[in-house]
Structures are given as structure tokens and as C-alpha cells.
Here is the input.
Amino acid sequence: MGNKRQRYSEEFKEQVVRYIQEQTKTLSQISEEFKVPEGTIRQWQTRFRKVENEPLVDRETIRQRDRQLQEQERTIKDLKEEIAILKKAMHIFGKEKN
Here is the structure.
């Protein structure tokens, strides 16, 4: 026959949302940990999320993210240059010889 739907108390839902805000784990990891579908947890987040419970981002974290972004931008620029060079090479070597 059919499976019974799992029911969770409001307190449990709030605790899970609070736990998410305190952790650095991904939603899928937390979903596996509590054995609750990700979609259900997302619904709980929209319902029970409180911004004041979220951890503050310190300046060092912001600096690290800025450094990461700068490194990613450099990598993207380098890759775009490489692509342009490869396109030119393909054009040059792709010409038919008479």
C-alpha cells in the first residue's frame, strides 16, 4: 500500500532552519543528515528563516572572497586570450593550400 507521509513538528522545522544558518554545509548534506528532502527544507527556510540568526561576515572573509574573485577574473581573462589565439591558429591552419 501507500507510504505514510512523515510529519514534522514546527519546533523541529525551526531547529533545522536555525541549524542551516549556523552551518557551512550544503543543503544536500543537511538533507541527508536529517533524512528530509531538500525541497521540504527549502520550504521551511522560506517560512522560518530569520535574518538576525545568520552569522555575520567578518572582514577577513570578505577579503578572501575578493581575492578569490580577482583570481577567477584573471583566470577568465587568460582563458579568453587563449581561446582567441586558438581561433586565429585554426583560421590560419584551416586554410586550403593551393
About this structure: Residues 8-55 form one domain. The radius of gyration is 24 Å. The chain has a mean pLDDT of 84.
